[in-house]
Amino acid sequence: MNRRNRAWVAFGVSFSVIFMVIFYPRKDFSVLQQVSGQTMGTIVYNVKFTGPLLKAIKSQIDRELKSFNQSLSTYVPDSEISRLNQQGFLTFESKYFLPVLKKSKEVYEKTGGAFDPSIGLLVQAWGFGPDKSIPDPAIEDSLKRIIGFDQVVFSDESVTVPHHFQMDFSAIAKGYAVDLIGELLEEAGIENYLVEIGGEVRCRGVNEENKSWSLGIEDPVAGLNERRLMAIVRLKDRALATSGNYRNYYEKDGKTYTHIIDPRTGYTTRHHLLSVSVFASDCMTADAYATAFMVLGLESSKQVLSQEGLDAIFFYKSRDGTIKSFVSEGIKPFLKMNKANELF
Ligand code: AMP
Ligand code: MG
After folding, report:
1. Among 60, 134, 237, 276, which one has the highest count of C-beta atoms within 10 angstroms of its own C-beta?
2. Predicted pLDDT at 192
3. Number of Cα atoms under 13 Å in the Cβ half of residue 114
4. Which residues contact residue 95 at a Cβ distance below 8 angstroms, ignoring those fewer than 6 apart?
5. Average pLDDT per block of 10 residues along the chain, 344 residues long
6. Confidence at residue 139, expressed as pLDDT on a 0 to 100 scale
7. Atom 3 of ligand 1, residue of closest alpha carbon
8. Alpha carbon distance 338, 56 (integer Å)
């Protein structure tokens, strides 16, 4: 090849390289994909992630949630938990049961029994179980003696509970399901996502604008069908779960009965806390502690928060009837309060 031809070849090669760099279709990670559906009866789930849409992802999510319910839902008559509640013994068939038992034991111990999934009989007795009925007060005293997670014995293969025990993982299961869907997305190669099931959330990476995911914290005294935001929080690689007495309660003879029960007394919780949102790296932990903190109240929860390195936002009713908040230090830089509820 003479010099002139070589020059043309060199020009052609460099032009093609420049052309490819400019026009080669980029993998566009800023595209937001959204998938939603229903699980655990009527609970809505929303999944957002960035990158190309994976067609099979919705059916994979639905399949995972179905197997999850087949293990841990007390609303499914032949689920693993329903069979445990009928027989007092279960050899694990799924991967779901053991992790939830281990996390339950940990949170039960760290909160002095404020979180206790052996609470099923009390939940039913107070009228919040699958079989809704308002209880006969005479049975309260005997019921509160027949719960206690320390009587739940398990190994890597099986679990045994005393006769009459009714396990109920409602206070931890949603958070656990959120983690499982997050892990499913990670296995599919998705790094930037937000998974939300009925208000419990897990985020990883960033959103389509390359910023942390933003989430609203609901006003705990908004009406039943109203949604008002109390604060906006930015989350990166964290999970958030909220527990509150503001949607699930009833009134009888001038008294309010809430769905969160203090396992140490057997009674439904009655104090000034309206809601607790807990931040942890996984959603199962956040969910369990959020329920426990509703039982413990603000002051005792603060001790657990610092011992466990967790963050939380508490909303409570002050003596003058106004709504106040306590926000732990670690979450303050990521939180923007609604104007009427300034941080303090
Ligand atoms: P959550 O919305 O996560 O706070 O869960 C509340 C549900 O957990 C209730 O509806 C009961 O089924 C169950 N529950 C109530 N009190 C407790 C408790 N102290 N520990 C564990 N589970 C509870
Ligand atoms: Mg919970």
Report:
1. 276
2. 96
3. 19
4. none
5. 56 45 48 90 90 88 96 93 96 97 98 95 78 60 75 97 91 97 96 95 95 89 72 93 79 75 84 91 98 95 94 91 91 84 46
6. 61
7. 171
8. 39
Give, for ligand 1, the residue of 271, 291, 296, 304 to mutate: max count of ligand atoms closer than 8 Å to Cβ.
291
Residue owning tokens 């699980």: 39
Q: Ligand 1: which residue has its CA nearest to atom 18?
A: 115
In the reported structure, the alpha carbon of residue 128 is separated from the centroid of ligand 1 by a whole-number distance in angstroms of 10
